[in-house]
Amino acid sequence: MQEHKIVVLGSPGAGKSTLVRAIADGVVIDTDVANTDADLGKAATTVAMDYADVALPNGDRLRLYGTPGQQRFGFIWPILLQGASGAVLLADASQPDPVEALAGHLYTLRTHAPRLPAVVGLSKPDLAPHLDLERCADLVAARLRALPIVPLDARDGEQVMWLMDALMGEIEAQAWVDVDG
Predict the structure, then answer these.
(1) CATH, range 3-180
(2) CA–CA gap between residue 49 and residue 2 (Å, rounded)
């Protein structure tokens, strides 16, 4: 059995807390408070982190840490990345430029964890009829490196597990590179 610390980074309102709750085994610890930022358009926002434990079918465990999305909480992102096995970058696909919304998170990964296995999840793809996955992939690759891009509904536990499966593939691939390199 292995434990994997997974950090969920992303833009405000992308569905990080929702994603964590969708696959949690039991109680989710969160630090949601009443939102005072009218630009976010939601009632509550995360100010420290969300945490949940997830048992995988093979006996491994995921320890999920959902981060606050606002740039003013950016100081906590590198702290949570310490000792991480992987990262999920989550963006709201319905935004005009979802990858641009991830710019600060991509920079944080490039600066503090450049080789950390990661995937990009694009939530709300049903609200983004003109979503260009190839353009998103190109922009992510230009800012960090080529990463899997997975459109998903963050409320759907099965879809979130597909995203985690893609991340576990990245983690395994990185382990092989580290052994051979």
Answers:
(1) 3.40.50.300
(2) 23
